[in-house]
Specification:
This protein is mainly α.
């Protein structure tokens, strides 16, 4: 029986699927038990982990899609990615701009 080898693309897709699964589980957990952990350090940490896993699960497929599009769509992708990351950081730090 021949040994089956995984390609780099398969490994990358498996990692993205894992991140999507983790993001779904943690997001569901924080939605259900959000009232228990709201405002606490544990709640903010779980929220950050869910956002990072969701970022990985969404960013890679979106990047591969934008590579096939024009230059404008690649710029839109990078701007949206930076805005999402800034939103995650500012959301965790609880910075009040007003």
């Amino acid at each position: 029986m021949a040994n089956r080898q995984r390609t780099e693309g398969q490994a990358r897709r498996d990692f993205i699927k894992l991140c999507a699964f983790i993001a779904l589980i943690i997001s569901a957990f924080t939605f259900v038990f959000g009232g228990l952990f709201s405002g606490s350090l544990i709640g903010r940490i779980l929220d950050l982990i869910a956002k990072i896993a969701l970022l990985v699960a969404i960013a890679f497929p979106a990047y591969y899609y934008s590579r096939g599009c024009g230059k404008v769509w690649r710029i839109v992708f990078w701007v949206a990615l930076v805005i999402y990351i800034a939103g995650c950081v500012l959301g965790v730090l609880n910075i009040n701009i007003s």
